[in-house]
Specification:
By secondary structure, the chain is α+β, with helices and mostly antiparallel strands. It folds into two domains: 2-131, no CATH class; 147-329, no CATH class. The N and C termini lie far apart (71 Å). It contains nine helices and 13 strands. The protein is elongated, with a radius of gyration of 25 Å. Helix 1 crosses helix 3 (90-111) and helix 6 (210-222) packs across helix 8.
Length: 333
Amino acid sequence: MKQLTLKLILPLSVISFATLTKWWYALPVDAPGTFFTGFPFPFVCKGWHTSMSLQIFAIEFFVDFLTYFLIWFLVFFCINRFWSKINPRKWVTIFLWSIAGLIISGASLIAANPDNLVYMKRPFNIEVKSSGFQFVWGKNTQLDTESIESKDEKHILTIPKGKIHLENGEYRIILRKKLETPEIEPGSGELFLDVIPGGPGWKTIQKLNAPLRALTAFYASMGGSNCGGDYCELTSALGLGKQGSRKQKQLIEMYFPNDKVAKTVLQQDCYLRPSGASTFSDFVYLTITVKGDTVIVDYELYFYNHGEHSYITGPDVYLYQNNAFKMRQRNIW
């Protein structure tokens, strides 16, 4: 079995581990809905702190690979012991190890990304909503996340029968971040940028009731939050799926029925330019303060336009009555 392990079992374990896997759509604690990958345990998912990054869980990874190895080991052990002796040809071994070597090389390059986060064990709990198996070359069987999220948030998508009250307090939606070393423009030595886009306050966002979620969704349609492709961080953190999703637009329409700016962003499908484009915006911070029926939205919104930098700051003031927001003062638009 030692020769079979080296010649067949190990390379087949690597190949099958990389080509046949299981996806999981789950809701992590204090984080947006996320796709995980791995069988029998999810061991990798996208990073939330920056694009093109991964979160890798070492113990789950090793247990998963060991599972594939043991399955192949048992298959070859039974065949070799009870059916017929296996004598693999040299070209088969070379072929399998060539493919396995390419897979190992590619996986190593991906894992070496300095933006990746590697944990000994997954540091957060998840609530699995759906899962399934797929080959890496097959049609993506991952489901539409909106169909799942809408089942969990039907109370948001229906018109409230009674008034939903707002609790007084401060809600820090996007948290300010500072650069430890401000960027200096080459040549002139002038300060280029000393702030960076803030990150979602996951715990606060998860506790928002429907009106405050609608207000946050509205601001997520007026200013960027590390947008890329079809997603923006703040919209995802709200559990609304893609930027401009049906749920996001319905929330805005429901709680801002007579707001001209709301109608404009709805007509634009809440579209925002991706962060890093020639023109884009990103919130540095965003805070909502509730005082009775008065709601104050304080923020700093960073704008980049072909090398020019500017900021728009709050506060904006709204009156909340009869399950709807009415604008009293607004600087953002």
